[in-house]
Specification:
It is built from nine helices and no strands. It is mainly alpha-helical and 202 residues long. It has one domain. The longest helix is centred in the first third of the chain and has 31 residues. It is globular and about 50 Å long.
Length: 202
């Protein structure tokens, strides 16, 4: 939430456009949290490296994919990319993953928003806002179920608040090319780490 506040200048013009995204994050985060309570995280754990690999590749290709999509809708004047059943379905899917497990969700969100055609600074701001919704509803689900370790949660919230605000502010100021390169580097590093820890570490 701190990251979204730091990048609020990019979000303010969107207005009602945000509502379907917020609802998708709310529904997906709730469902993901309930799935985790019901069955543990073993299923998504083995998928994480593949999801990160796909998300990083899609994000790297998003300038070309975004131009292709923009060309297809060039006759539909709009200040921002329109919502479609496919795009909202993708956001719900990412939100379910975020509520269930969450590792690397930001890369998945950046890939989705960038491919839709959002400028990178706005995509980063949207990622921060929707992530806050997903994690908040999932955490509330765990609190109600009595499955929260409060000491660890306090540490995580402190780090997330500081890091989120700093990241949101930097995302507004960094040149898009530098920010994109940094995201690809982080995504690639996380992909390699999760492939190693999932399939090769003893």
């Amino acid at each position: 939430l701190a990251g979204a506040w730091a990048a609020r200048a990019s979000l303010r013009p969107l207005g009602r456009y945000l509502l379907p995204l917020l609802l998708a994050g709310l529904a997906g985060g709730l469902l993901g949290g309930l799935l985790l309570l019901a069955g543990g995280d073993d299923v998504f754990r083995v998928l994480i490296p593949w999801l990160l690999l796909a998300a990083t590749a899609l994000f790297a290709a998003s300038p070309w994919l975004g131009r292709w999509l923009a060309e297809r809708r060039k006759n539909k004047a709009s200040a921002h990319p329109p919502h479609t059943p496919l795009s909202l379905g993708a956001h719900i899917g990412v939100s379910i993953y975020g509520g269930y497990f969450g590792a690397g969700m930001g890369i998945l969100q950046l890939a989705a928003f960038s491919i839709e055609g959002h400028p990178l600074a706005r995509a980063n701001a949207l990622k921060n806002l929707i992530s806050a919704v997903i994690y908040s509803i999932a955490t509330l689900t765990f609190v109600i179920a009595g499955r929260v370790s409060w000491y660890e949660l306090a540490i995580l919230l402190t780090g997330a608040t500081i890091g989120g605000y700093a990241g949101g502010a930097l995302g507004e100021k960094l040149p898009p090319a530098l920010l994109r390169s940094f995201v690809i580097l982080v995504g690639s590093t996380m992909t390699l780490y999760y492939f190693w820890s999932t399939y090769f570490s003893a």
